[in-house]
Write a structure and sequence with these properties.
heterodimer; A: about 325 residues; B: about 575 residues; D-Maltodextrin-Binding Protein, domain 2; four-stranded mixed beta sheet; 15 strands; about 40% helix
């Protein structure tokens, strides 16, 4: 034991300390960020232990009684568990499937516009929905899709169709959720791709033009491959939040009529009265979600590393 | 005012005398902790109430004398929501609370938080477990805090010093079970809202002018309602040449429709389906055969476009739009909607009027009496924490503010002379409240004085605690008439919210979400016709499968306790 310890401190003294000393200003630079993650992300992980305890605030985390997997069992044994899983994953996957390519496409197209007032207007207008609060957004969706006065249904009836009760049809819910999400966020999400595009080496464009490439070809053969690594990293990161479906929007948008497709883990837990001090149950569900997220992000990262050599780590 | 002051001085004098007497003897029992000069004698002040106008009755607690303590020597910290009216925080010295402090001598240390943040802030404070306020609005599961020892029992104080609260409980016997724990100890104070049914019960409303237009009489049975709605829709009641009438709009989403279950004797509105049969056995009305009849009727109405297509989703503002666009033929909601809707019609330039009608019967020869369920009867739980010093005095203060005439009139009507005037001993709202010169709504005008507080207060069914509700509608003769018409039909709802044991709480927590999810989903599907009513028995079976019997046992135990406490 002693020798190992000695070895360790020896290594620390001879190798690590000088390095830290050498890079002390860099260390100082990242210190706030580092502290942030340690204090707000790593230390609270210790609190996860209450997922296995009957947590009573007065007894404290350590004084509360162990209950083992009781809360996990309660959650998994709900007759709605399979449906909640399916809805959560599907809504996420569809959001990703349809929502992910749009900002890339938009950034590519925007890049083709000559710089000028028109481009600026388009850009600003496309960002704006991002800053609308969810409550207002849902209000807009509800009034547009109303079976009585909604613009969409008025259009449908004018064209000879019959009005659709959109928000009470479970088959429409995912489309509405994903569609409104894309509309709200594609402009804002394209910013990162625009910045990636601006970093593309102009010499590549010149070379392509000299070789006689057309605009479409430059877009697909030069610009797109150049921003692909950024896109892949974004995709991997997105997989890490697949179980975190936006609770707020669904809660405002859904009703018992569409539980079939709309009821997700977070809304179910909310109805279960998580507000009513059921800390332990909430933590158990949160832990379950995080484990799946971590698993997904690892798998996708692995695949990406094998296939495209782009990966997070 | 003058008279009161004189009385106050008299009482003060009596108190001082008493302190002088008991002081040297040193035999006083109460806790005269840090505040050395507190007249501890007042806690054992039996027999000195001679100056009080009405002597206490029977074996109840003795009436205490005011002020409770020498001015400002005791401070009670109260943690509740901040006043709902922004710009008038309780700490700014609102007249209702100034008066209560003046009369009792107890000072209030307000520890208020906006209602949206209150639960988070208070749970954190309770979790830390130290330096707690004396009296708090209990966030979340109150009995958990009791079993953790944070909220303390007040049975003894109530017996000794709860002079006014005991009178309130005697006059309104439905209250006591809601503040009593499963162990029989008294723990809580609560806001009594049962009295709101005197002025604002749930009511069925319909367009009177549309009825007259087609020579229809007020609907009495479900079939009458159906015929009225059918006529509204088919014969273009609003006369714009389009088939755009929405004969019935429901408030409160699904529950606004299951409210029609009351016609079949089902408690499917305020009671959420829990009811008690003649033998005192608790039942779940959603699994009864009558429920199937109700669903069949609702499905018929929905499929013929008589019920709002947005019934599952819409909020109050959407209904309002349908009212002012002359589309809505009727609504089931709180009666206060009557005046609001009629004003909306007026301001939209529509010559129409809503009236409230009797709750429907299932059919003309049905033996079931029509009814609507009473909302409440209580709201919120408040209690004393373990850190409370001078509990006896502070208890008296809460007792006085909660249930005495001064406290009740203050919290219900505001400042005397500004918010109300006494006529024949009864408070009557002034124009400052009902027709505010600055354009404040009734509730805003009251809250600007500290009335309609976030502190527990009473709008009860009996006694002087019941004066306020009917006063709030006194200037709306239509609503007054409708409220009176509704009174015979109002029944108590199932006591869902009586304090439960931790075990009961955990059973309800585990099974009830699944039951409610399945229930709401299937009921919606049945009404919309997405699921055939042949499936009703399967639905009942499924409910049984996912733990209905376990929850029923809990509800039975709770109901038995409720009965035994009344």
């Amino acid at each position: 034991m002693k020798s190992i310890n000695n070895k360790k401190t020896g290594y620390f003294r001879s190798q690590v300390l000088p390095q830290i000393k050498r890079d002390r200003f860099l260390w100082l630079l990242i210190l706030p960020g580092l502290l942030y993650f340690i204090i707000f992300c790593y230390v609270p992980m210790g609190g996860l232990v209450i997922a296995f305890k009957d947590y009573r605030p007065l007894k404290g985390i350590w004084g509360s009684n162990w209950v083992g997997l009781r809360y996990f069992a309660e959650f998994f044994s709900s007759p709605f568990f399979p449906r909640l899983m399916r809805n959560t994953v599907l809504i996420s996957v569809y959001s990703l499937l349809w929502g992910f390519p749009v900002p890339i496409l938009f950034a590519l197209l925007l890049n083709e516009l000559a710089a000028g007032p028109f481009k600026k207007v388009v850009q600003t207008v496309s960002y704006m929905p991002h800053f609308i609060s969810v409550v207002v957004l849902v209000g807009m969706v509800q009034s547009f899709l109303s079976p009585y006065e909604g613009i969409v249904n008025q259009l449908i009836t004018k064209l000879g169709g019959s009005a659709v009760n959109f928000l009470s049809e479970s088959s429409w819910f995912r489309t509405i959720y994903v569609g409104s999400g894309i509309w709200q966020n594609f402009g804002y999400n394209s910013i990162i791709y625009l910045s990636a595009i601006s970093a593309v080496d102009p010499q590549l464009y010149e070379a392509a033009r000299i070789d006689g490439a057309k605009r479409i070809q430059i877009m697909t053969r030069v610009t797109f491959p150049c921003i692909l690594p950024t896109a892949i990293i974004m995709l991997i990161l997105n997989f890490g939040s697949i179980m975190n479906v936006g609770f707020e929007k669904i809660n405002l948008l859904y009703s018992p009529a569409v539980y079939e497709t709309a009821d997700v883990i977070s809304t179910y837990v909310y109805r279960r009265g998580i507000l009513d001090s059921q800390f332990s149950f909430g933590t158990a569900v949160g832990l379950f979600n995080s484990v799946i997220n971590l698993f997904l992000i690892l798998v996708v990262n692995q695949i990406s590393r094998k296939v495209s050599e782009v990966s997070l780590w | 005012m003058k008279k009161l002051k004189a009385q106050g001085i008299l009482i003060l004098a009596a108190c001082l005398l008493l302190t002088a007497c008991t002081g040297p003897a040193g035999g006083s029992s109460s806790s005269s902790s840090s505040s050395g000069s507190s007249p501890s004698g007042s806690s054992s002040a039996s027999g000195t109430g001679g100056s009080a106008p009405d002597s206490s009755t029977g074996s109840g607690p003795e009436k205490y004398t005011l002020p409770l303590v020498e001015d400002g020597s005791v401070t009670i910290s109260i943690a509740i929501y901040e006043n709902y009216l922004t710009g008038y925080p309780y700490s700014s010295g609102l007249p209702v609370w100034e008066r209560l402090q003046e009369e009792t001598g107890v000072k209030i240390d307000w520890q208020t938080t906006p209602s949206s943040d209150y639960a988070t802030v208070m749970k954190t404070r309770l979790a830390s477990g130290t330096d707690l306020p004396d009296f708090i609005n209990i966030p979340g599961d109150a009995m958990r805090y009791v079993s953790d020892g944070v909220i303390i029992p007040i049975t003894e104080q109530m017996e000794k010093y709860g002079y006014y609260t005991n009178q309130l409980f005697e006059a309104n016997p439905y209250l006591r079970p809601f503040v009593t724990g499963p162990d029989g100890e008294l723990y809580f104070f609560t806001s009594d809202v049962a009295g709101t049914s005197l002025s604002d019960p749930y009511a069925f409303m319909i367009r009177k002018d549309w009825l007259e237009k087609f020579n229809l009489s007020e609907p009495e049975t479900l079939d009458d309602w159906y015929q009225c709605w059918k006529t509204f829709l088919e014969q273009d009641a609003n006369g714009n040449g389009q088939r755009d009438e929405i004969p019935f709009c429901n408030d409160n989403q699904l529950k606004g429709l299951t409210g029609f279950g009351e016609a079949f004797g089902l408690y499917t509105h305020a009671s959420e389906g829990w009811s008690v049969n003649d033998q005192g056995v608790v039942e779940y009305d959603y699994v009864k055969p009558e429920m199937k009849e109700l669903l069949a009727w609702l499905n018929k109405c929905y499929s013929e476009d008589l019920i709002d297509k947005e019934f599952a989703t819409q909020g109050t503002d959407v209904i309002m739009k349908k009212v002012s666009s002359n589309q809505s033929g009727g609504v089931f909601r709180f009666l206060n909607g009557l005046d609001t809707y009629n004003k909306a019609l007026q301001s939209a330039g529509i010559d129409g009027e809503y009236i409230a009608v009797k709750p429907p019967k299932a059919s003309a020869d049905s033996k079931l009496e029509p009814f609507v369920e009473r909302y409440g009867p209580v709201s919120g739980l408040y209690g004393f924490t373990k850190d409370c010093k001078d509990l006896d005095i502070k208890f008296k203060f809460i007792d006085y503010a909660y249930a005495s005439e001064t406290g009740n009139f203050g919290t219900c009507f505001g400042e005397e002379g500004v918010g109300y005037e006494l006529k024949d001993g009864k408070p009557v709202f002034t124009d400052y409240v009902l027709n505010n010169p600055d354009g404040k709504s009734t509730s805003d005008a009251l809250r600007s004085m500290g009335a309609m507080p976030t502190f527990p207060w009473c709008r009860s069914l009996n006694g002087y605690w019941s004066y306020q509700p009917t006063q709030t509608i006194a200037h709306q003769p239509n609503t007054v008439a409708a409220a009176e018409m509704m009174q015979p039909y109002i029944r108590d709802s199932f006591p869902q919210n009586i304090p439960s044991t931790e075990e009961e709480q955990s059973i309800i927590g585990q099974y009830m979400t699944d039951i409610t999810t399945l229930r709401d989903e299937m009921v919606t599907k049945f009404i919309m016709g997405r699921e055939s009513l042949d499936q009703f028995d399967t639905f009942v079976n499924d409910l049984q499968q996912i733990g209905l019997d376990k929850v029923l046992q809990v509800r039975q135990a709770q109901y038995d306790r409720y009965k035994s406490l009344q």
